[in-house]
Amino acid sequence: QVHLVEAGGGSVQIGGSLRLSCAASGRPFSPVAMGWFREAPGKEREFVSSIRWSVGNPYYTNSVEGRFTISRDIRKNTIYLQMNVLKPEDTAVYYCAAQRTGAQTYDLWGQGTLVTVSS
Fold this sequence. Notes:
By secondary structure, the protein is mainly beta. It is about 0% helix and about 50% strand.
């Protein structure tokens, strides 16, 4: 069984930076893609960023383009989300997800890590 474990959340001031990580532990792991989603208070979970595992192509939602960077370390089965110039509207629980081989969508989720951006 593979588990996704996020780390790196916390509180930061407006304009600050945080780096999230998500490590896949357990069985050997080679997903189609991995990504980050977030859920703000009172809102639905939304897509933030994703990366194709084999070729490393990144994708971003418009609101984080240019501020967030997703990357992966294949040897460590880990993805990262570098978040810069953080805004209050980035406040949310951030979830890591994986689309495993054979799945049509993201089918494996982490427990989430809270990011709070305040003045």
